[in-house]
Amino acid sequence: MSGKEEILSEVTTKALHKERETVGSPFVENPRMTCREVNVYYGDKKAINNVNIDIARNEVIAMIGPSGCGKSTFLRCLNRMNDTIEGCRVTGDLRLDGMDIHDKNVDVVPLRARVGMVFQKPNPFPKSIFDNVAYGPKIHGLAQNKAELDEIVERSLKKAGLWDEVKDRLTQPGTGLSGGQQQRLCIARAIAVSPEVILMDEPCSALDPIATARIEELIAELRQHYSIVIVTHSMQQAARVSQRTAYFHLGDLIEVGMTDRVFTNPRHQLTEDYITGRFG
Ligand SMILES: Nc1ncnc2c1ncn2[C@@H]1O[C@H](COP(=O)(O)OP(=O)(O)OP(=O)(O)O)[C@@H](O)[C@H]1O
Ligand SMILES: [Mg+2]
Predict the structure, then answer these.
(1) Domain assignments of the chain as residue spans, ordered by start
(2) Is 244 a pocket residue for ligand 1 (Cβ < 6 Å)?
(3) Could you tell me where the DSSP H helices lie in 50-175?
(4) Tell me: the pLDDT tens digits for 207-218?
(5) Given 41, 92, 204, 257, which residue has the most CB atoms within 10 angstroms?
(6) Contact 161, 217 (CB under 8 A)
(7) Does residue 279 carry a pLDDT above 90?
(8) Ligand 2 center to residue 126 CA distance, Å?
């Protein structure tokens, strides 16, 4: 490389790097999770570029951005779900209460109980309603006896706002519930193993407006006990449920801030273009 090219490439790298610097307030005091210099590759294609962000305690943080910008990919970093995807490689430092989640001593099974996940499409196990919720506590040894297990199942279904609808049919299959009920069952299943963080990837996109409203109310209640990271395509939903919003664009974390501020006074042009409907 000639001297001139070298200088040019350095300038370009700096320019790119500058563009990637997240504006707003990605960091918080006393975070539940910290993510530093996180990169994700699918084969040799980079899907997440140098993301730095904290997840606070008792917050709902919304991840928004155009399709393909890396929201789901980043969400999966938080409980090492990307490990399950062939060819996917994650670098950087991710911590839960200070614990490096990539440490060789970390077992992903308990990690995924502490950082639970709710998917776009409700995916109850082909088991009874009771067993869907009891499964996690059983494998993690959270109940000493049947009475304790019953107690955990009831408490989790109550927290998920589903108990009254299912208490007389606990032995029936979870798959026999309506879509909105199935999604609340999946939330109960995540809650049953006492998580600290719940990841939700477009949890309402398969639901009607009434079921969506029910889940949104639930998210607001759950914040008292957990941190919730929700990916959503609905800016109205992000505005209704979250305290902070993170805007992703082509694998870059562009802006993070208080939701009201991001939606009324975005600091980055790309955020503004997206929320005003000029992009995506
Ligand atoms: N399993 C995979 N193998 C290869 N590339 C992938 C894989 N999953 C995602 N990608 C690529 O990584 C990038 C980010 O994808 P991701 O699914 O995280 O985006 P997203 O923001 O969640 O999009 P959407 O809003 O459509 O769900 C895209 O370019 C996508 O094509
Ligand atoms: Mg996605």
Answers:
(1) 3-275
(2) no
(3) 71-77, 108-114, 129-139, 146-159, 163-166
(4) 899 989 999 999
(5) 204
(6) yes
(7) no
(8) 25
Fold classification of 3-275 is Rossmann fold (3.40.50)
Q: How confident is the model at residue 280 (pLDDT cuts 50, 70, 90)?
A: low
Instruction: Find the 81 Cα to ligand 2 centroid distance in Å.
Output: 13
Residue 73 beta carbon below 6 angstroms from any ligand 1 atom? yes
Residue nearest to atom 6 of ligand 1 (CA): 42
Instruction: Note the ligand closest to the C-alpha atom of 70.
Output: 1
Write out the two tokens for 11. Answer: 């300038």
72 Cα–ligand 1 center, Å: 7
Q: Which residues, at least 6 apart from 267, have a Cβ–Cβ distance to it below 8 Å?
A: 23, 24, 255, 257
Cα distances from 78 to residues 7, 94, 207, in angstroms, run 37, 7, 25
Please indicate whether residue 71, judged by its CB atom, sits closer than 6 Å to ligand 1: yes
Compute the distance from residue 232 Cα to the ligand 1 centre, in Å.
Answer: 14
Structure token pair of residue 142 = 């959270």
Give phi and psi for 43, each to the nearest 5.
60, -125
Is the pLDDT reported for residue 8 higher than 50? no
Task: Give the distance from CA 250 to its chain's centroid.
Answer: 18
Q: Is the pTM above the cut of 0.85?
A: yes
- Cα separation, 173 vs 184, in Å, equals 14
User: Residue with the nearest Cα to atom 22 of ligand 1?
Assistant: 72
Strand residue runs (E) in the chain: 23-24, 33-42, 45-55, 60-64, 88-96, 99-100, 115-118, 197-201, 227-231, 244-249, 252-258
Which amino acid, 28? V
- Rounded to 5, what percent of the chain is helix, strand, coil? 40, 25, 35
